[in-house]
Amino acid sequence: MATDPSTPAAAAFAGEANFTEPWSARVRTLTRLGRHREALALLRHGDPSPPPHALALPSAAISCAALSLSSGVSQIHALAFKRGLLPAADAYLLSALLTSYSRLGRLPLAHKLLDEMPLESTPHTTLRTAFNSVISGCALHALPAACFAVFRRMRAASVRFDSVTLLALVPAAPPSAVPQFHALAAKAGLAAETSVANCLVSTYARGGAAGAALARRVFDEMPPASRDLVSWNAVLSAHAQNGLAIDALELYRRMRGPDGSGVEPDAVTLVGVLSSCAHLGARGVGFDVERYVRERLPGFRTNVQLCNALINFHARCGSLPRAQELFDEMPRRTIVSWTALITGYGMHGHGDVAVSLFEKMVSEGICPDNVIMVGLLSACSHAGMYDEGRKYFSTMESAYKLRPTLEHYTCMVDLLGRAGRLEEARELISSMPMTADGAVWGALLGACKIHKNAEVGEEAFKHIVELEPNNAGYYVLMSNIYTDTGQLDCVARVRAMMRDRGLKKEPGCSYVEHKGRVHLFMADDHSHPQAKRIYELVIRLEQMVKGKPGVRENGAAEGHVEKAAAQPVVGFHSEKLAVAFGLLNTEAGSEIVVIKNLRVCGDCHLFLKAVSGIANRAFLVRDASRFHRFEGGVCSCKDYW
Against a cut of 0.85, is the pTM above it? Predict the structure, then answer.
């Protein structure tokens, strides 16, 4: 026997909620439009002649839940019970009550209502609706165990699940269980439904790069015609959020082509694309996205996430003035906006501007978080601002209630190391309240490379090998320290360690965008169609930089090109080739932008400084950690990198 959930207010609903069929339709319409207060007012003050119609009560329950009126849902429940509409007479009303109780967190009442349903006499569709409502409620309140318990009960009662069931269960499942639900969906013939496939893609995406691969598989198996905007956004975000920027841009290209079946990107799409452009330094694609935004989304400045993505793209791709302009135009800024701009100035070596922006942000009442503190400390490190960096690090906890993390310690070790304070950096590592990771010791090792300190470098390398034994970059760094200090036997030992462990140095590569195409160069690479001219120009420029006789003022070497080209064409790093390509193919006076995957070496740094003066051109080079602007024979880093 069902329990009567009457409340003292139920009589008011029973006496006042009387209206004709058109009133019911109006209540439903108002609820659907989100005008919940109007819907309830209409329910209470409708035409008093006939009894309340069952069609109005489900909408009223949903409106009560939307307004957090828990007692209102109970009153509607009581009224429905008295009118004989429950426990199983009306599936829509039952679903609305179960959904409302679940949304309001009154899960015991939802479970009680489900328990009182007579399984034998209740229509199958009504039972499925009831189970789905409770499962969705448990998922909404982050109770995965309860979700799966209700699902098992649903299966035991031989109630068939549908796409609604899966849309609640799949996001609540732990990563290891998602393939099982995927298999269930496929067996039931539901995996091909657009909503289910989209849900699987989004859920797999939470599993890192491996999850992104599974998300891509689900997406590729979808019929092209069934891929909607949600499908494209889900798979693109899966790759962008897991650092698979090249794949994300390839998906965007497909979306904009015939594969997209006319699906137009929205702000969510473009945020993911811009993130990938910033990661790769894909300026051409990013500029195309910004043109699209300006043409198709005229009110984009009110979209904070999109503006933040544009600022981050421009700051990380060398267009710092444009990033500042976008920032200034924003009607409302979040801490993400400030972080993008401060980090951008830091990457360009403008630590003083980054500090000034940070102080302005704090004065406007925005509290710093751990992410922006990493950007600020990194900016201080790149600019050699030891005192400022030390001050902000030491006051993080007292001034901003932020406890330093491993990332903050890494920034400080980097700052101290660059400043030549290696012993102070070692002491900081020893005083850390947590165990230093590979990044912390790697920062110290990098500083040892700058200052040619093999002794401290060996200490850092010993820890790194234990923590990150397969990171080839650190082996190369230690080998270079030994090379700089003339310890060739130690160089051989490190290289032997790499061979024994099957490690290979990551090849350096640089690229330049020109006329809509990306031109990629590797060290000693001869695959480019203009390779002969590129190497000839590099050789001439090196002769000029070294001050060899026979160099005319206009930059052309005397003698025949063949004579220069006869020299061995090896040992040419990728950034030299990229800059030479830019000099050959761009207009005089224009800036050449190069993106490099590794840190610029000292030799190339000297070369690019000199060539910027010889050729009277500006080169903007983004390496693995920062920007270098070479112009007039000097670099913006002031040789502090």
Answer: no
